Each structure stands twice: as structure tokens, then as C-alpha cells.
Amino acid sequence: MTTRTLPQQTTSHPASQDRAALAPRITGMACRNCGLAQPLAIAYVCPACFGPLEVSYDYAVAAATFTKDAIAQRAPGIWRYLELLPVDAVPGRSLPVGSTPLLKAERLAPVLGVQRLLIKDDTRNPSLSFKDRAVAVAAERAVEFGVPALACASTGNLAGATAAAAAAVGLPAYVFIPADLEPAKVDHALAYGATVVPVMGTYDDVNRLCLEVADETGWGFVNINLRPFYAEGSKTLAYEIAEALGWRSPDVVVAPVASGAMFTRVARGFEELAELGLIERRPIRFVGGQAAGCAPVATAFELGSDVIEPVREPDTIVRSLAIGNPADGRYAVDLARSSGGSIEAIPDGATAAAIRDVARLEGIYPETAGGVTLGAVAAARRRGVIRDGDEVVALLTGNGLKTPDARTLGLAPGALEGGRAHPGEPGLAPVIRASLSAFEAWLEDGR
Ligand SMILES: Cc1ncc(COP(=O)(O)O)c(C=O)c1O
Ligand SMILES: [Zn+2]
């Protein structure tokens, strides 16, 4: 039998990294619960209270160079907001992530019952989801720490993002997924050269295993031991929205919620811009969307509770959001409540219909989480959280090519069966001979 060696830590332990090497705007980490300060390291839990660690900044130092004029001169992509990201310098090697468009959705808006709808189209990042933002930051920090491999526990999109980023920075990638994940997502991660490890069980089972693997191997798990850095990457969604609006905030932001990391960090991003004086401080209502078949945060919101009751057996086509025990669930429900927003639970049928509507009416094709987000726009409008005249920004965070089966859910049997579409009808027409007469015969047939 041969024993294969796994990549091991070769540099000194990151916890011992020299503090003086950090950019002065990064002051270290602090516990979100008790505030205990910690040195910057590959760490994610507070040693005193087990709360989550977050990166802390010296905003006065950041403000000196983080101005509207300076930002306007910089190249597109997430690194134009470097001062508020936990990396020392713009990476030498990374994928071109971010600067995705904010588009007016004038045809879709009335279908969802709202007047002013903007879509943040994050379906078109390098690996086709917003996860590229989070992973780019974690990967760069991982390189600075000298980890031997990049890894993740994924509900699908993170798999591709981690694999792609590892390829770009030249690290091996280990991607852990639930064994029954959508084939397109598995294939996507494989294409970038990752080692994909399917695990029997739910995402939460995968995550539990990865906590142990991270301890054992010292690999940089982007959403576990690199989580404080990973989470920061999602703030760039807020910076880009504010910049695209001419440095101001919208009335309502609607986003999908799985672990709740992105939802809560988008809010933090707007908060930081207000703190630095780049936008006026105005209230923003934050609306989150979950799939009804895995909605621990929406349930807590509905019950008026702070306790997130884990969902043991998620039952939904929305695999990307199927986290039964969300790490930032408590903070997500608190954000929705304190901002005057809501967390909506969207049935799969409504999610599929929303995917079809936005693709057909706006030319944007999101994966299931995007369908949930648009379902949440309509639900929040019905609830009265979205009011007349509100400017609503909906985050479409992943690409529909990753979940090709979701689109057809709920259609009448045979509705999209190949070879049936008549002229003027959406769908696949019958195969015809390469002759004008054959084409005309089909046209005639449809009359
Ligand atoms: C497309 C997409 N949108 C949103 C999310 C939610 O991210 P978070 O775990 O930060 O709540 C995910 C998570 O996997 C995702 O894949
Ligand atoms: Zn603490």
C-alpha cells in the first residue's frame, strides 16, 4: 500500500506572524460578542466566549486614502476598496472579481409589485457567483499566511469559487460537498482542478467534518478558519451599490440568506461608508430570503425569537441556501428586525417562477438563490416592508447555468418538452431539414 502525503504547513504558524508586517489600517481581530481583541491569525472563535471573531480596522487611517476621488481613479474590481478589506496590498495574482452591473429591472418590477427595482447582477463573476468576492479575500489572506492548501465546505457555489481562486493563486484545493449536490456544481469545481470530496449527509454534516479536518491539516478553509476574512469580501457588494448610485444607499436591500454571512456584511459595508462619510447615513431596510424547505432564520423572524432552531433535514431545490444551522443566523434575524426589514420563506414553486420571469423579462438568468431573492421582494412588498416608491436593490448572487433543472419546476408536464414549440412560442422547435421549404412548412404548421 502506498501512503500519499497531504500538503502540510511549511511556514511558521500564522498566529506568530509579526504584527508589524500588517498594513496599519488593519488593527487585528475582535470578538463580535464580547469585544475581546485578538491578534490577526487563522482563527475564528473567541477564546473567552466562543463568539465569532471579526477583523478590526483603524478607520481614521483608512479614511486618509479612501476617498471618492481616489476610488474613481482605480481599476475595476473589489480591490478598489482595499482600505476596507483585510489584506495588506492589492494581490499580485487574483481573478477579476466584482464591479458587476447594477441594472434597472423595469419590466420585472411590476410583476413583483414594486415600482423601482435594481438588480445587482453577481451572476457574472469569474466562477459565476458572488462567492468569488469572499473567496478572493480569504485566498489572498491565506497566501499571506502561507497555508499549504485552500479548502471549503460548500453548498455548491463556494466549491467553484474556491477551486477557481486556488487555481489563480497556485494552491491545491480541497472542496467538501454534500454527496448529492447538483452535478453542474460538482463538475465546475472539478474543471478548475480541485480535489472534490463528496460527503454523505447534509451541508451541516459536511461543515462539522471540515471543522475537524481544518484542525488536523492546517489547510485554509475559506469559510471556517479563514471565515473572518472571507466574510469581509461580501462588503464589496455594498460599496459597489453605493458607488453605482452616486455614493448613496437605496431604501431596501434584498438578499439571500444561507449562513447569513453575506446578508450581515452587506449591512456592515453600508455602515462603514456612512462612518467614513462617503454616503449620508439613511435607514436601509434589509430583507432576507430563504427557501421554505430550509428556513431557520425566516422561522425565527416569524416567531419573534432570537433563537435559531436548526433544520435537520432541508427539503428544497435551493441547494445553495440549504444550511440548517446557520453560523450568522442570529445576527441576520437581528438585522432584519432592527432595520425594519424581514426574512421571507419562499416556496420552491415561486422560486422557479421568479427565475423564469427575470430571465424572460430582463435577460438575466440566476440560479435558485436568485429566485428566492426575487420571491422575497414580492413577499416583502405584500407584507408592507417595501412601500410605494421605494428604491429596492435585489442581489442575484449566482448563475442559472449551475441549476439548470430548477427553471422548469412547476410547469405543466410536457410544457417544455423538446420539439414541440410553435412559431412565436418559447421553447424548442422540432428539428427541421436545412431548407427554406422545411422552415416554411413549420411556420405553416403553427398557423
Ligand atoms: C448563490 C448564493 N447566494 C447566497 C448565498 C448565501 O450566502 P451566506 O452563506 O453568506 O448567507 C449562497 C451560499 O452558499 C449562495 O451560493
Ligand atoms: Zn468573546
Written account of the structure:
The protein is an alpha/beta fold and 447 residues long. The protein is built from 15 helices and 13 strands. It has helices at residues 59-65, 68-72, 109-112, 131-145, 157-169, 183-191, 203-217, 227-233, 235-244, 261-275, 296-303, 329-338, 348-362, 368-383, 436-445, and strands at residues 26-31, 37-38, 53-57, 102-104, 116-121, 150-153, 173-178, 195-199, 220-221, 252-256, 285-291, 342-346, 391-396. The strands form 3 sheets. It has a 6-stranded mixed beta sheet, with helices on both faces. Strands 8-7-6-9 form a 4-stranded parallel beta sheet. Residues 10-20 have low confidence and may be disordered. The structure holds pyridoxal-5'-phosphate and zinc ion (ZN). The site of zinc ion (ZN) has 8 residues, from loops. Residues 31, 33-34, 36, 46, 48-49, 51 line the site of zinc ion.
Short description:
With 447 residues, the protein is of the alpha/beta class. It has helices at 59-65, 68-72, 109-112, 131-145, 157-169, 183-191, 203-217, 227-233, 235-244, 261-275, 296-303, 329-338, 348-362, 368-383, 436-445, and strands at 26-31, 37-38, 53-57, 102-104, 116-121, 150-153, 173-178, 195-199, 220-221, 252-256, 285-291, 342-346, 391-396. Pyridoxal-5'-phosphate is lined by residues 129, 131, 155-158, 256-263, 320-321, 367, 369, 397-398.
